[in-house]
Amino acid sequence: xxxxxxxxxxxxxxxxxxxxxxxxxxxxxxxxxxxxxxxxxxxxxxxxxxxxxxxxxxxxxxxxxxxxxxxxxxxxxxxxxxxxxxxxxxxxxxxxxxxxxxxxxxxxxxxxxxxxxxxxxxxxxxxxxxxxxxxxxxxxxxxxxxxxxxxxxxxxxxxxxxxxxxxxxxxxxxxxxxxxxxxxxxxxxxxxxxxxxxxxxxxxxxxxxxxxxxxxxxxxxxxxxxxxxxxxxxxxxxxxxxxxxxxxxxxxxxxxxxxxxxxxxxxxxxxxxxxxxxxxxxxxxxxxxxxxxxxxxxxxxxxxxxxxxxxxxxxx
Length: 316
Fold this sequence. Notes:
By secondary structure, the chain is of the alpha/beta class. Helices cover 47% and strands 16% of the residues. The chain contains ten helices and ten strands. Strands 6-5-4-3-2-1-10-9 form an eight-stranded parallel sheet. The protein has a two-stranded antiparallel ribbon with strand order 7-8. Helix 6 (157-176) packs across helix 7 (194-204). The longest helix has 33 residues, at 3-35. The chain starts with a helix and ends with a helix. Residues 1-36 have low confidence and may be disordered.
């Protein structure tokens, strides 16, 4: 373990220990509030993408940090942080050991970089399907319930949707044989259109295939037709989009970027958003995914958790 990473993990553990006695009563009250809510909080690994990319922590550290530092017992992995380990049983066993030793539940693996499931070239999208199989297998091995995929593709909305229906149906069949869910995130382009996502789900029509609504990923088109970079020039209404997707949701990504002085998310009205989620009849995990730049990842995660607990109490 490098010195920087050792210092980082030591600081996390120390902070957790210092906070236990002083906050035990408050934590107990918050736990009761969370357990009586319509959702349970999980933590998305992308919230630590800066620390992970900087080598301050590793994928193996993630579930330990989630539980010891933030009191979160359910985690959502991102495959790019252990990209070459999907078939490495020694590695997966070590990850499981750390989860079991800390009472952490593995919920899902977010899969990126394995090819476009909406590619209009059949050979390419079928290769993308096969590329995802190993992550379904890894999810099963780790005790996850779900893998999150993307339905990217270049072409008309109709053509990409048709291609994605074929490929995700095939992937869903493979995953279904292992009792694993496949969920599609609104993640830019056609997928950020709520009606398009509904059409995708209706076309696939499998009980183990659903969606992962993300509060903030509703940019349909950017300058220069870039997927991630560039100013957004066409955006879908986030409340309309989430409302449309909720009947198919098997999880929700509680994205935050910036906060005001009262700890509220600037980009999304969490009271409005969580009320429509509650009204949909949803019961499941809301995954914290902090993606801001103005405060640290640690502070962003804490603020998001506090916001979810505050809003849940107000909606109880």
